[in-house]
Specification:
The chain is α/β, with parallel strands linked by helices. The chain folds into 2 domains: 46-133 and 228-268, Periplasmic binding protein-like II (D-Maltodextrin-Binding Protein, domain 2), CATH 3.40.190.10; 135-227, D-Maltodextrin-Binding Protein, domain 2. It is 34% helix and 20% strand. It has helices at residues 2-18, 74-86, 98-102, 120-123, 164-172, 184-192, 203-212, 240-252, 255-268; strands at residues 26-27, 30-31, 50-54, 91-95, 111-112, 127-128, 133-142, 157-160, 178-181, 198-202, 217-229, 232-233. Helix 5 links the parallel strand 8 and strand 9. Helix 2 crosses helix 8. The longest helix is centred in the N-terminal third of the chain and has 17 residues, at 2-18. The protein starts with a helix and ends in a 12-residue tail after the last helix.
């Protein structure tokens, strides 16, 4: 009997050792690592979920062409982590127009993330989260006709309406041959088609476009502007301070850095700081 009991105990131990690890907590394709409900928010915009706005397309940050198809990406997984730590396992993505988002004309959301630079002008309309990513203004050109620090002054340059890139190109640089586009997708399409000589927007965004079309476009330089991304909150919302605590926790425990390594550094294939800086 003793021998049989010993064999049974050994078999149980082996089964326990061979048992698969507990499945990871997932929202979309994002493995959420914080404790669910550790920093709860009350009365979200829609009951039982976190609602996040974005202006698509936004490859690498939001991987997919429609809200329904997006399951991962840098900002999507940040939002997933926020939802989880706020107590929810459901995340709804809502696609909105860039102009409407920046002008504060959207409603019914908890936060918006769309590579949005924090500016004093925008603070008049929105509340912003703590910053979670630093970005300067990059210059994207056609691979067969690159521009440089000098020739960009006379080039036809595309910008996206109501962005810091547009303000920088027209204001700080004083470029006169500027074509304004309603969204970055139209701007990049025009560049690839040869309708403009260069496109200017955040370095992070132009690097993503170079990865998507390496045989057609190239990031030739960037301008130091000291920009930083933040999430937009509805002005005066009672949950804003709590979501800020979640943002800070995600940065403090290393989650933000891990997401950056997975979605940004790996996708770009280079450190943004390695892109040469142009003088204004």
């Amino acid at each position: 009997m003793k021998s049989r009991n010993m064999l049974l105990a050994a078999a149980v131990a082996m089964m326990a050792f061979a048992a698969p690890a507990t499945a990871a907590n997932m929202i979309g394709n994002c493995e959420v690592t914080g404790e669910k409900g550790s920093i709860p928010i009350a009365n979200p915009a829609k009951a039982g979920q976190l609602t996040v706005e974005v202006s698509l397309p936004a490859p690498i940050w939001w991987n997919g062409d429609t809200p329904e198809s997006i399951k991962d990406g840098m900002e999507y997984c940040i939002a997933a982590e926020i939802a989880w730590r706020a107590g929810y396992d459901k995340l709804e993505v809502v696609n909105v127009g860039w102009d409407a988002l920046i002008a504060g004309q959207t409603e019914g959301f908890d936060l918006a993330m769309s590579e949005i630079s924090i500016t004093e002008e925008r603070k008049k309309v929105h509340d912003f989260s703590v910053s979670y990513f630093a970005s300067d203004i990059g210059v994207l050109a056609r691979s067969d006709a690159p521009v440089d620090e000098k020739t960009i002054k006379g080039a036809k340059v595309g910008v996206q309406q109501a962005t810091t890139g547009a303000a920088f190109a027209q204001g700080t640089l004083g470029l006169t041959d500027v074509q304004v586009y309603p969204d970055q997708g139209d701007m990049f399409t025009a560049l690839r088609a040869g309708q403009i000589d260069a496109a200017m927007t955040d370095t992070s965004i132009v690097l993503a476009e170079q990865v998507a079309n390496p045989d057609k476009v190239i990031v030739v330089g960037q301008y130091k502007t000291g920009e930083a991304y933040g999430a937009i909150y509805p002005k005066g919302n009672a949950n804003n301070a709590t979501i800020d605590k979640i943002f800070q926790a995600i940065m403090d425990d290393g989650t933000m850095a891990k997401l950056g390594a997975k979605y940004l550094a790996a996708a770009w294939g280079k450190d943004p700081a390695s892109v040469p800086y142009f003088n204004p």
